[in-house]
């Protein structure tokens, strides 16, 4: 349930919720609560839904029963969209009364204080929640969780993601300017990964990947546009991704995200739900950062006695580079004037925002100290991507912004190398054996590493990243990633210690050196990092041996995609075929088993000329699609004349199958080679949906066999 709680700052507060209509009840089993553990609380946020009359938002009476004993009663009334927080002890009252002390904070949330009186620790089996409203109001219980008395062995985890923060914008990361005194101090007490690469060059693919330890496109989400289609969301959820919030949640942590980031909210049409109990989204730019920090401070005060995982996403220093004058001037005054003058206006403002953000981190750390959390929490600092800010790498496309003052368009180090700092709780410091990781790692490893540090297990083989906690604790384990894959807008790259290879999708490989520059094709970039660490000389057109190696590495790490397979049977005599193929889902990449001549290539069309020698072998054309769409158009010319072909599950000739395809495009889709695919005397096309398709049930297989028999009897299929 999402409430629009602040119109001036565009604040939406979303919570996993139970809905109870007037006169309704909800019964929760408490069988997982150990009877010998005292101190359990039922925490929830209440919101009321009006029936549309009476001039107020909602009103009614809420009661809790522990087994058959009433333990809580409250009359609720609300005149606006608002969540009201409660924390109710799950215990029988010693004197049978329902009295509780109640306080109110500045946000008008009612909080039941934790009491020191001796609790009744008898076994408890059922919690019954009763809601009655004479006005027909409905009740939402937001983020309903049972909070157990905190296990001192478990520690809170605070993940702070600073948007668009380049590694080398930190003083401790190589910047010649005094941008980050707070972070520099924190780094001295922390585990530091010195060469961390993001797996997406803009926010959505990067954040999804580090919260799931899987490349976002491999979970069905596109890497190009802000929106997430219904088809993409359906595919994402069908893959049942393992997520960091859900992993902590399953271990009894309260999980919350405080952010200006719609990519973690399903209902926005751009994001998906990763499993947070609660999300606070502040949508007002420029004013968002201080509001986010304020809400984080409130969170620490409210949850200081709970076990929690908090994700805090600060939007500075993301474009549009508007640092408060105080911090900009302070940085300018403390910097080497000659170096400062070498920066352009936007580079200066970007660093001013870095300095401003660092100061706000100081406020956050001070609040953690006041609440007794600073030495009792894992504090993690990273970023989703960097920022280009270099005219030597200025290649303009047409997506979001000018490349030089943005991100998402290139794969150069400045755009994908980010900080990754982990400050351990005080009680863990004597266990740390490795504090610095010099070699390259990626943010795919953030989830398994944080789980490993907190002794939380996860399914073997489910996560793509490494668990660096073993090395941190002095055990045998990985310390780097030899190959790192990163995706961007219709582009991808692989990084090794020796080279970086960048590939743009067909149709998206024309660039301009500047906005006014002449468009030219640049489908591939290859940098020999040993000779050219600044990535200034593209050797893809001259170093063919390295290019062949790089292409092979990328192919081994390519995205999972649905694929059109077109089998071309060998010719008895020399023949020439021209293939004209349109795919609605867009072309990710295509491969052919023989030699070919490309006549046309764009984002959805390819025209190829293929020569087949007499006595040769069958040839296969594979075309992987960007989006999982089966819609296509195909024309084959053999020696200049149209050639018929078969399609789909039962190999019907296209002229007969055209009507079927117009009604049911997925007739062409399946997860295995279709009937007669390998033996057809004419070309055969089908769409392999191994990436997005559901596995056929036994009933569907039997039904398919029956359908084939019917089609044979009608003359559509010939042996």
Kindly describe this structure:
The chain has 719 residues and is of the alpha+beta class. The chain has four domains: 146 residues, Jelly Rolls; 328 residues, Alkaline Phosphatase, subunit A, CATH 3.40.720; 66 residues, Arylsulfatase, C-terminal domain (2-Layer Sandwich); 152 residues. It has 14 helices and 39 strands. The strands form eight sheets. Strands 1, 2, 13, 14, 15, 16, 17, 18, 19, 20 and 21 form an eleven-stranded mixed β-sheet that branches. Strand 9 and strand 10 form a beta hairpin. Helix 5 runs parallel beside helix 8. The longest helix has 26 residues. The radius of gyration is 30 Å and the shape is globular. It starts with a strand and ends in a 5-residue tail after the last helix. About 3% of the residues have low confidence.
Short recap of the structure:
With 719 residues, this protein is α+β, with helices and mostly antiparallel strands. The chain contains 14 helices and 39 strands. α5 runs parallel beside α8 and α6 packs across α8.
